[in-house]
Amino acid sequence: MGVVIDDVCYGSLLEDVVAFYLYLFCKKKGYSLSYEPKKGGADFILLSPYMEKIVIEVGLNKRQSKQVLKSMERVKASKGIVIGNELKVEDNILHIPWKGFLLLI
In the beta sheet, which residues pair with residue 105? Predict the structure, then answer.
């Protein structure tokens, strides 16, 4: 009998991989990593050494940036990143396909 892995499981694994990479990046570059505790908040918030905040949302099928926009407004961030399905830039939000992101790390 094989193991069945669904999109929810893959989504959680993707979020874990991104979290691990961001942790290593922050440790090396002097950034700090946190999250927005409010319901509906983005997955991660990066704080640069220059106090610039970047909101990050991760998901296998993410196409919209509503969650990132809400979090950007709440934490007063100037930029956002959605790691999902598409490659585009809109409203200071960079959308990166998750497969492309994984190739970069």
Answer: none
Global confidence as pTM: 0.88
| 7-104 classified as CATH 3.30.70 | no
SS3 of 79, please? strand
- CA neighbor of 58 nearest in space, from 10, 8, 6, 98: 98
Give the C-alpha separation, 48 to 31, whole Å: 5
What's the burial of 60, exposed, middle or buried (CB within 10 Å: 0-12/13-18/19+)? Answer: middle
Residue listed under structure tokens 């094989």: 2
Q: Report domain extents, the chain.
A: 7-104
Beta bridge partners of 97: 84
Tens digit of each residue's pLDDT (9 = 90 or more) over 32-85: 999 888 888 899 999 999 999 999 999 888 778 888 999 999 999 999 999 999
